[in-house]
């Protein structure tokens, strides 16, 4: 599984959304499930999937599907 497939799957599993919903408009609090608790579930799932530990500032700034890929780039995850 490629990194983009893994990344997309984490979002789909965490928020019970389809792949078609994941785009530039998929941002923090755009759906009820992506609240503060859902956010921490997403971060935990991403850390597990990519075997990384994100810094606090990166967790706070992780505000959308698109910017998340840029954030993971800091951890040498390429898309």
Low-confidence stretches: none
Please tell me how large the radius of gyration is. Answer: 11 Å
What is the chain-wise order of helices and strands?
A: HHHH
Largest sheet, if any? none
* Helix and strand composition category: mainly alpha
Quantity of strands, as a count: 0
Indicate the proportion of strand residues. under 5%
Total individual domains: 1
Shape, per Cα inertia axes: globular
Q: Provide the helix percentage.
A: 40-55%
Q: Could you tell me how far the N terminus lies from the C terminus, measured between alpha carbons in angstroms?
A: 12 Å
Q: Counting H and I runs of at least 4 residues, what is the number of helices? A: 4
Mean pLDDT: 97
Q: What topology emerges from the helices and strands here?
A:
Blueprint: H1 3-15, H2 36-50, H3 56-61, H4 65-73
Organism: Duganella fentianensis
Protein name: Acyl carrier protein
InterPro entries: ACP-like_sf (IPR036736)
